[in-house]
Specification:
Largest sheet of chain A: 2 strands, antiparallel
Mean pLDDT of chain A: 95
CATH class of chain A: Mainly Alpha
Helix content of chain A: 55-70%
Structural class of chain A: mainly alpha
Order of helices and strands of chain A: HHHHEEHH
Strand order of the largest sheet of chain A: 1-2
Radius of gyration of chain A: 17 Å
Strand content of chain A: 5-15%
Oligomer: homodimer
Low-confidence stretches of chain A: none
DNA sequence: ACCTTTTTATTGCATTTGCAATTATATTAT
DNA sequence: ATAATATAATTGCAAATGCAATAAAAAGGT
């Protein structure tokens, strides 16, 4: 069953190639769009939390967030109770572009799952959730 | 069902972090071990073919193979019938290390799928094969 | 209260990555 | 046969990546 691990990796890389091309014009390629989506959906996560949520290296995450702050998509706020952490919030600009970013996700998902019935889709989701890394 | 796309991406990145750490001592991190596995299992693919098989960018693949040739894991041979292509073959060194590399894949797969019954594993494999990118 | 360990953010630095362009060969169309 | 198109390998270059180290704060143990 080691083919499953190969298949999952291959699918991810293909999706990554596609999303890179798709978001190149907006300069939100290389998973940048993922950060915006997450920040909008769950505002107030601190940096390490966000990095864990998207499962991307902390250094890379840190620099990515920094870049998105510079470009006006995100803001960082110090926490009054914890001097160590900085919480990430979406700006108005992020809110505005969110629908477009999420639409891409939905569209890609639909295409990815097109050959599966609704029942099969639910089964797949359930099985994926039982995987442990 | 867009959560499926997120879940697949997260799993892949977690596996990548693990494999990077695991293969660091052998300097076969960053998917290098994948190339050796493929070259052993299907010798004679040409460069672009191998890149497509592992779903990794051709430039990156090219350089990776070049590096593995320098390090004695792979060899490149010109094709007598097609001057454009170069075919990739494993060396003895690659053959020798293959069992260890494949064992990692198997071990990781077992852990990943540990919570699933044999039937569920088969279902998952079957559903993943029906996904289209 | 104090010491130890852990967690978070941050920076330096070398490596890796991948887009875009180039060259050469092969394939297809006319 | 020739021209146009497509495919493969390759290189330059700038950007992205991630390991290792550092500093500061928090959490846990005694």
């Amino acid at each position: 069953m080691f083919t499953i691990i190969r298949r999952i990796g291959a699918i991810t890389r293909l999706i990554e190639i596609d999303s890179n091309q798709h978001f190149k014009p907006l300069k939100l390629n290389n998973d940048l769009f993922i950060y915006i989506i997450r920040a909008v959906e769950q505002p107030g996560m601190f940096l390490a939390q966000l990095a864990d949520a998207v499962q991307i290296d902390r250094t890379t995450s840190f620099r990515t967030v920094k870049g998105l702050v510079n470009r006006g998509y995100l803001t960082l706020k110090n926490d009054p109770d914890n001097l160590k952490i900085k919480r990430v919030y979406p700006t108005e600009k992020a809110q505005q572009i969110y629908p477009e970013l999420h639409a891409y996700e939905v569209e890609k998902s639909q295409h990815l799952l097109a050959k599966l019935s609704k029942t099969e889709q639910a089964t797949l989701a359930q099985l994926l959730d039982k995987l442990q890394v």
